């Protein structure tokens, strides 16, 4: 069993409109945009990162806004819900705030003893807030939501699968343990994590497969401290028979990717070097940053991107 994985690093999804996406995460949820850059494979598409003040691993929601992309279809083989941690006793505040701002699909529920508020992102993205007692991660203080109500970071994600078996085995190999069960849901947890410590599997044998589109999670990334730990994880996965990509430099972390048996794309990302690698913490996310290979094309790239109004 691996011991290098310390919870989630980031969750990456797709959206249809950059401005709408930016406003939802910064103005409605009160996260900080910690990076404004472009897709490494398609520099005419933004890559937007939202999180806590410095974009700590376990807090970072990232998006590729593909203009006019059709909505995804929910189903099996995907992350069905991304769950954020908020302070105990704040769901009433959030219910009122999200309702006033026209957020759709609001609904209260309880899972594994946590009070939760479900809501949809701009493209029907599946989200929830979970009340967590004693989450020591500090919410972003510079946004429209106060620290006493703000988002600490991720609690975890729910993956909807047709079958638990192989994915459960993989999670155990990655250092997670099954800790609870409720109805169709099984909860896996990692110890010694960064706070984003839970993977809930919703097992629906008859569910049809999800279709990726706007509002779908593209992949979920797990955190390791550094490149040495990442290489250990990569070797262990390869030895177990997984097809893993080489290490890829993503400017703010190093990444490896592999497809899991249940269909979800996993990434292992390093905590180093972080989002303040190329801009001061005070000004994170303000300027358009470009990967090195695209810097000579800045004027053409900027001409193709619609500026985002803050
Ligand atoms: Zn990623």
Observed structural traits:
single chain; 8-stranded mixed β-sheet; alpha+beta; 16% helix; 16 strands; 310 residues; binds zinc ion; 2,3-Dihydroxybiphenyl 1,2-Dioxygenase, domain 1
CATH architecture: Roll
Please tell me what the overall shape is. globular
State Rg: 18 Å
Proportion of strand residues: 35-45%
* CATH class membership: Alpha Beta
| Largest sheet features | 8 strands, mixed
Secondary-structure element order, N to C = EHEEEEHEEEEHEEEEHEEEH
Trace the largest sheet across and list its strands. 2-3-4-1-13-16-15-14
Structural domain tally: 1
Note poorly predicted spans.
none
Q: Please, could you describe this protein's structure?
A:
The protein is α+β, with helices and mostly antiparallel strands and 310 residues long. The chain has a single domain (8-304), classed as Roll (2,3-Dihydroxybiphenyl 1,2-Dioxygenase, domain 1), CATH 3.10.180. The chain is 16% helix and 35% strand. It has an 8-stranded mixed beta sheet. A hairpin with a 3-residue loop joins strand 14 (248-249) and strand 15. The longest helix has 14 residues, at 227-240. The mean pLDDT is 97. Bound molecules: zinc ion (ZN).
